[in-house]
Each structure stands twice: as structure tokens, then as C-alpha cells.
Amino acid sequence: MTMIFGVPLAAFTGQLMLGLINGAFYALLSLGLAVIFGLLKIVNFAHGAMYMLGAFATLLGMQYLGINYWVSLILVPLVVGGFGMLIERFILRRISHLDHLYGLLLTFGLALIFEGTLVNFFGVSGLRYPTPELLQGGYNLGFMFLPIYRGWVLLAALVVCLGTWFIIERTRLGAYLRAGTENSALMQAFGVNVPLLITLTYGFGVALAAFAGVLAAPLYPVSPTMGSSLLIVVFAVVVIGGMGSILGSILTGLAMGLIEGLTKVYYPEAANTVIFLVMILVLMLRPAGLFGKEA
Amino acid sequence: MTLIKKALTTSIALATASAMAATAQANMSDNEVRIGYLADMSGTYRDLAGPGGLTAMEMAIEDFGGSVNDAPIVVFSADDRNSADVGANTVRGWVDQENVDMVGGLVASSVTIAVTKVIEESNGLALVSGSAASSITNEHCTPNHIHWVYDTYPLANGTAKAVVEQGGDTWFMLTADYAFGHALEGDVTKVVEENGGEIVGGVRHPFPTSDFSSYILQAQSSGAKIVGLANAGADTVNAITTASQFGVTQSGQQLAGLLIFLNDVHAMGLESTQNLLLTTGWYWDMDEQSREWAERYYERMERMPTMVQAGIYSSTMHYLKAVEEAGTDDPETVRAQMAEMPIEDFFARNGSIREDGRMIHDMYLAQVKTPEESTGEWDLYEILSTIPAEEAYRPLSESNCDLVQN
């Protein structure tokens, strides 16, 4: 049997595959954060809570309204995204002229409120969401048993990530967005409704988090605290990729998933810290992040 | 005028009342029995004790009549947020400023060890119901606390032994990388090896971990018959769910959960937990007495109680009986009185308190039902066998507790 540093090739490949799947999650979440930070300059600490709300909306939608997984996949990001727009319009906008720190504190407070409220109703043990019938079971790939659902998560997350990158970097709407954040006064002079653009962008970033929440619902227990545990890692990914860099956060998300996956094989005790080690290294060598523009 | 009148009537009323109760209350500090409830009310361990445990404690007080020998029972409660500092400071305040006579609940082992030190310094009394570490009545024993519901020793002894006897003789350990996980792993290794089994591999995962897929893959490629889960709460839930997604049981491996609570099984559902073996101190549906109490609890909480919540009722009730019997709330006297009385209620069978502070009682080996067997939302366990109190817990001859003379 071929061995790679004492691990059989088959097991090694399996671990890489899992790393990639986790990386896709990181990519999807850090992408939303990067979009919001890049265009609005808001450090959105409520992002984890939005991811959690996405998962809860999926679960409750099925329980009380009978909405199935596939409909949720479209509907939940729209609903939670709409909720995000209300938050931007009526709360965040009031402090948009203040220092970034205020936005950070405000969104952090909002996250605590959402989390606490749901803990009150649902506890912390987590609830189960069944895997949709079409995606149950798994394939034996020879080197590992791959549950179909995990394969689907990887595919769906990558498609959405690339779609987002395309919209922002390659379309006219994306160009407006980027221009609006560069010089909003000038854009308004050209007749573009910049405040509306900002609300939509925040809503879109939140919708991405909610989409990740829908994908996560059948995978992990749906619990009010599921977002906060993931958020810190995702922030580290954004910092490594370069705050606000779209492509950077996608690639870094995937890469960090892989690095974490390999750590779990060779030194599992460090699996939760390895991403932060990378972050420290990157901050020392390239303070603007791997894909960030030098400040 | 009215004020003076009011004060006057009050003092007359008080004087009469206290004269009447004087004999009975002579030995109750502050003429009240003050109980503190400390637990994780909002974090990982909320559902296994939390607000439900407080409800169980209040039920015990209500059933007792709300007062002991005419001294009213007053409850204080606080969230320790699983922090040893927060817990110890809260209890210090209760003991120093509020003259709290007994502290109950107590979940995370780290908090419990810190709190019992404070209680020992002030010569108070603590009844520990939620914690797992067997060291609480071993190297960390004090004359001022009693450990009520379960600990890691019977968990390993009950589950691991049964699994090896059923032919599960090769184990892969999935261990939470902190004191509790290491202790449990040590206990399990000892039991497995003593019974002729072998530990073929293991991985220590960070606490907490949300994604277990990598570790499950390693367990699969180890070829062990049994994957032992030396972790708790959300970690166990995540590990079991992931194992089910990766077809661990379908490929012939079996999971052994070493610390599983009713709320964990309820959260995961029977599809992914069916046939899991576990050791428990109590189960709501194990007999008529238990069901009767559990139904009353359910009416208030709309959830079935865990063994910890039932144990909080049982320990509070036993405490109040001892206070009544002893005629005082002096901790030392009450502690001695509690140890003198046998414990036989809906929760504990053949219960008694040892000199190291361990309350030993019958434990149960249970198996999680399959979805077909289950007849309702909370119909989750089948009790396979009873582990007699004497066999379940660490024998005093192996104790490192200073209170035990070996």
C-alpha cells in the first residue's frame, strides 16, 4: 500500500476530500463576510447568527409549513436576506458614519440577541433535519465512503461562490457596487441610488450565510449556537484571504479546509488552532492578507 | 400614623409567630432554610440540568410543603456559564452574604471542584447532581459535599464491560482532549483490557469540535469493532450523527457512547442512535413511580426529565427530610443525618451515602430503541439490566479520598 507520511494513500485522499467539503463551507461564509466588508466596510459579527437563522428557518419551515428542502434552498436565503436588509436599513445605517468598531459592536449585540432568544425556545441540544430523500445514502469511492449529501454540499457551495464572484467582478451591477463603495457621492451624482445598493448588498451577503445555513441543516444539529462556533474560524479565513477580497476568500476558504483536514490526521489536538497559526503567519508576512491590496 | 401602626402590628404579629415557632426554629439559621441552585443555564449543558433542574428542585420543595418545621424554604439560583471562577464567586457570595445552607445542581466538573473547595472552607454543604468526574469523590473529596447521580466510573464499568462481553473486543477511542475525556478514556481502557479486550487506536479531538467527519474516517480505517466515545454533550451528538452519515454501523462497526443523556438521544433522533448501549442512573419510563414523577415534570417543562433533573429532586428531598429529622440546618449535622437515612425513592434504589461522599445506588445498562420499537417522542430507552449499587461505583478499597481509611 502506498503511504504518505505514514498514512495510507486511500485514507489520505479521503481526508483531502473531507477537507475540501469543509473548505467549501468556509468559502461560502467568508465570501458573504468579504462582500459585506468590501462594499460596506461593516465587520458583520451577526454573520454566524444569520447562518444559524438560515438553518432554523429551514427546519421550522418544514415543521410548521411543510416547505421541503429544495424550496427552502431558494426561499430561506430570500427571507433571511430580506430580514438582513431591514436590519441594514433601520439599524446599521444609523451608525454608518461612525467608526467601524461601532458596527462591530452593534452586529455582535444583535447576534447575541438572536442566539439568546432562540436558546430560550429551543435549548442548545440541537434539532435534527432529515437529509432530503434524493440525497440520502452514499457512494463507495474506493478510498472512502462519500455520503451523497456531502458531495452535493461541495458542488452547491462552489457554484454559488463562483456565481457571486462573477456577478461582482464581471457584470455591470457588480461594477456599480464597486464604484459605489469607492466614491458614493460621485455615483449618486450619476443618478445611481447608492443607499439602495448598499441595502441590497448587505441583504445579499446575509442571503449567502442563510444559504450555507440551509446546506448545513441536514449535516449538523440545528442549534442556536451553531453560528458562533463557526464565525471565529470564518473571520480568520477572511483575514488570511485579505479583508474584502472576493476571490481571496473563496480560495482561502478551500485551502484552510484542506489544511485543517490534514491536521486532523497528523496532529488532531491542533485541529482547532491550525487556522489561527496560519493567520498569525500571514499577518506577520503579508499584513494585508494573501489576496488583499496593500493598504 | 399609619406607618407606626403598621410597624406595630407587624412586630406584634412577628413576635407571636416567632414565639409559636420558637421551639421548632431554634436551630434554623435566619429562621429560613436557604438553598442555592447553581448550573449552566444557557450553554452546552443547559438541557441536561439548567432551568429544568431548577424546576425539579422547586417541585421537591413544593412537595415537601414549602417549609421545614415552620421555617420557610428559600431558593437562590444562578448561571455559572460553565466557568469555575463565576461559579466559585457566586457561591462565595451566597455563603458569606446570604447565609445559604445548601448548594445544589452543579454540572460542569471543573465548576464543581472549584465550588466544593469554597463550600469546604466555609463548612457548608453541596449536593452535586450533574457532574461526571469520579475524582469529585476521589482525590477531590471533602466532608462537605455529596455526589448524587452518576460518575465516570460506572459509565465505563457498565457500558464498556457489557460491550466487551457481547464480543466487542477491539476498540477505537474518540476522546475529548481535556481532563474529563482523559479520565473517562483511562477508566474505559482499564475495563476493556481487564475483560480481555484491546484498544487498537484512538484520536483526541479538540473540545469542542463541530465536524467529526475526519475522525470518523480514521475510526473506520482502524478496523476496530467498537468506536468508543469518551466525550459529552454536543461533541457526542456530532460524533454520532456524523458516524451515521458515513455508514459506520452499516459497515459492521458499533458505537459505544460513554456519557449520553436523554436529551442527547432526543436531539439526535432514533434513526442515528438506535441500538446504542449506554449506562444511566435513572430513566423516566423505568417503572410506575418514575413515570408518575416524570409526568408531573412534563406538565411543567413539556420535556421528559434527564437523570440529572430527577436526581436534583431526589437529593433536595433527601436533604429536606434530613433537616426535618435533625431539627437544624447546620450543615455538619444534616450531612451526618443524610448519611444515616437510606435513600429509596422514585430515583434511587438501594441508595446510601458513603464516607467519601459518593451516593451509591443501582445503575442501569440501557439500549436505545429502534424507530420501529419506539411508541412515542420520549420512548427512547430499553433497560437491559440493573447494575447493583455495590458493584457500580469505585470500591472504597481503591479510593484515594482522605476521608477513607485504607
From TrEMBL, chain A:
The keyword Hydrolase does not apply. It is a multi-pass membrane protein. Keywords: Amino-acid transport, Cell membrane, Membrane, Transmembrane, Transmembrane helix, Transport. It is found in: Cell inner membrane. The chain crosses the membrane at residues 20-40, 49-67, 73-92, 104-129, 149-168, 189-217, 229-258, 270-289. PANTHER family: ABC TRANSPORTER ATP-BINDING PROTEIN, BRANCHED-CHAIN AMINO ACID TRANSPORT SYSTEM PERMEASE PROTEIN LIVH. This is Branched-chain amino acid ABC transporter permease. It comes from Vreelandella rituensis.
From TrEMBL, chain B:
Residues 1-21 form the signal peptide. It comes from the Bacteria. Keywords: Signal. Transmembrane segments: none annotated. It holds the Pfam family Peripla_BP_6. Residues 32-369 form the Leucine-binding protein domain. PANTHER family: LEUCINE-SPECIFIC-BINDING PROTEIN, PERIPLASMIC BINDING PROTEIN OF ABC TRANSPORTER FOR NATURAL AMINO ACIDS. Belongs to the leucine-binding protein family. This is ABC transporter permease. It comes from Vreelandella rituensis. The lineage of its organism: Bacteria, Pseudomonadati, Pseudomonadota, Gammaproteobacteria, Oceanospirillales.
